[in-house]
User: What shape does this take?
Amino acid sequence: DIQMTQSPSSLSASVGDSVTITCRAGQSIPYNLNWYQQKPGKAPKLLIYAVSSLQSGVPSRFSGSGSGTDFTLTISSLQPEDFATYYCQQTYNIPWTFGQGTKVEIK
Amino acid sequence: QVQLVQSGAEVKRPGASVKVSCKASGYTFTDYYIHWVRQAPGQGLEWMGIINPSGGGTSHTQKFQGRVTLTRDTSTNTVYMELTSLRSEDTAVYYCTRADAVPSSRAEYFQHWGQGTLVTVSS
Assistant: This one.
């Protein structure tokens, strides 16, 4: 199984801050990396697919980058509705594993 | 629009089985694989398995070997996830989700999700 390691596990930030979350894969996963946002009691929501493609309807302050084993999700100007938990996911090999999550909290 | 509607919450005793349904609508049922993902309380997302609604072929993570069965009914556009020999650690929200892909590539992702089904295992 491909292990996905996110960092940090949690962070505190203020509205307007720029935030970066990293995700490292246990092996190269070319472009098979997605990011999801999850709020309490809700299903995950797709933000970014194939490393850097913004899902339709997702604000442009979200962006993804990376290659090989190292990837990042950046939120350029944090908004109140962005406080949530974020997960990376690889879809290169079954099982399609997720990172452990990064909780973004209000400072 | 694409919808995945899951069955309601369940409470089961340890050792029992549970069968969760996921009814698809708004697209051609046999064109997209369905995956199952679960989330224990306060924990992260855990991929469980996949079913091809067209041929019925399945795969699941080794962790659930012998305990999970994925099936589908093409007459009702419904997929099912049955988990047997339940234990307290199986208490979780179970999601079905549809795998989409970037055309002409292997880049796949979960755009559409069911609302989740809470399964509580307690004596």
Q: What stands out?
A: The first strand of chain A starts at residue 4 and ends at 7.
